[in-house]
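task queued by scheduler; priority normal; single chain, no ligands, no partner chains; default sampling; output format set to C-alpha cells
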Amino acid sequence: MDTQKILSSTTIVLVIIGLVVGAGLGWYLKPAPPEPEPEPEPKLLGVYDGETIVITASGGAIQEAFEEDINPGFIKYMKDTYDLNVNVEIYPFASTAEVIAKLDAAKKAGELPPFDVLEGPMGHLRIMHNLGLLEDLNYRNIPNAKNLIPEGFPYLAPGYGPAILLQTFQMAYNTEKADEIGIEVDSWLDLGDPKFKGKVGFPAPSYGTFVQVLWNLERALGGDEFDPELPLAFKWIEEVLLPNEPIFWTGSAMMQTLLETEEIWITPGFCGRTFALMARGVPLDFIGTKEGSYHAICTTEATKGTPHIRLAEEFINYMLTEEAQIWYAEHTYYGFSVPVDVPDHLEGYVMTAEKIQETTVLYDDVYYAEYKDQWVDRLEQLIASAR
C-alpha cells in the first residue's frame, strides 16, 4: 500500500478521533455557567411597591421633622430613584419602655414586630440589642454611612445602626444676665459662682444627663472622671453647688422653659432646646467649657424580623443624606452626623459634625449604666441633707 495513502488515512482517523474525544472532554471540562447577574435594585425592591414601613418617633420636634419633611422626602426619593410607591407611618411613643415592651411581646408571641425602624438614644437601643430586638444591618445597602464622622459610628457591630444626629450637652447661659453681674462664663465651676445664686439650673438625679455633669465637674476639679467614686465632684456639689440653691429640672422641656422665663440664668443644657430659644431671640449662648464636654448619639435601627428590611435600610441610608440632615436640624437643632453645607438660616444654631468632633467627647453610656444607681442615690442623699 502506498505509504502516503497510509499516512493520509491515519491522519484523517486521528483527526476524527481527536474531534470526538475533544468534544467529549469539552462537554466534561466545559466551565461552569457564569453566576447570574444580580437583579437590578428596582426589581429587588419591587416587592415593596405599595408597602408601608412604620417608624417610631419620640414626639415633639422629632415627630414634626418626620411628618412634615423627612417622610415625604423619602417617599419622593423612592419614587424618583426606583419608581416605587411606598408609604411611611409614624408611631409616636411616650417612653422607650413602651417600645421595648411591644417589641418583646411580639417576639415572644412569634409575631412580626409592630415597627420597622426605630430612632433613639444609643443607651436605650443598646438594651433592645441585648434583648435580641434589633436586626443586623447590611451596610452595603447603606452607602451613605461612609460619610459619618467617627463619633457617629462608634458601634460598628451587628444590630447597631448609624447615628442620624449628635446631641451635645454643654453650658447654656443668659448672656445679658451674665454681663449684668460681671461673669464671663467658661467653666463648669461657674455653676457655683455666688453671683448666680438661686438662678442655677441642674439636672435632677432622676434625669440621667446629670452624670455627664458629674464627669465634667470631676475633670474640672482636677480629678479622674472614671473614678467610680467621683469624690471631688460630689464634694463640690455638697459644699458649693447646693448652697447656691440650684433649681433641679427633670427634663429638657422644663430646662427650656426655665431658661426662657429667666427663672434660671445658667445650666448644663442640650443643644436642641438652647439653639431653639436662641433662634427665637432669647439672649443665650451655648458653649463648650474650657474643661470640655460630651455628646451623645441618636441612631436608627431596623427591628428584628421586620418583613421590610431592605426598605428599612433604604430609609436609614436616606437619613444620612444632606437633605434629610438639614430637615432634621431645622426642626430639632440637633447636630449633624455627616458633613453638611450649613444653610444660612441655621448658621450659629446647629453644630456641624466637624465642630462636634473637634470640641466634644462621646458619652460613654456603658460606663454610665454600670454605676448609675449608686450615683443617683448619692446625689439624692446630698439634696435631701441640704433641705
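post-processing summary
- The first helix runs from residue 3 to 29.
- The radius of gyration is 30 Å.
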